[in-house]
Amino acid sequence: MLFFCHLLSGFVAGFILFLIFKDRRVILITAFGSIIPDLIDKPLGHIVFSETIGSGRIFFHGFWIMIILLICGTVIYLKFKNPTLFSFASGILVHQAGDNMWSNPQNWFWPLLGPYVTKNRYDDYFFSMILAEISSVEEIFCLILIIIGICVYFAIESR
Hints:
The chain is 70% helix and 0% strand.
């Protein structure tokens, strides 16, 4: 899944959490959580660890970070009635669902099931992804839906 598709799914999840928590902040926090795995893991995996792991799905695409954040977020919400961390972790969960991370359990549960498995290594990963972003009909559609959603959000808020 590409950037704007992740962002759109994060906004949708954020609106659902808004209906539950009645706190507008969760919308943006969940949306941010839905893109943070790529913002952290892609540079780490393709630049810092390019020779060893060589994948853009490392830490924040893993089950353990997501589950630890969800548990901590649940505890914080139950104790302090603050849904911030839970919303952020929910965004990460939505991101992982969009990437279908469980289809490769060895990487999703890394390091518990053995070494990280890399299928593809890209020499020009970032350039390829920029081309994929601007040439994908789905990405353009998701961007349009995000813009419409933001307009509706601010129109409702201004009333």
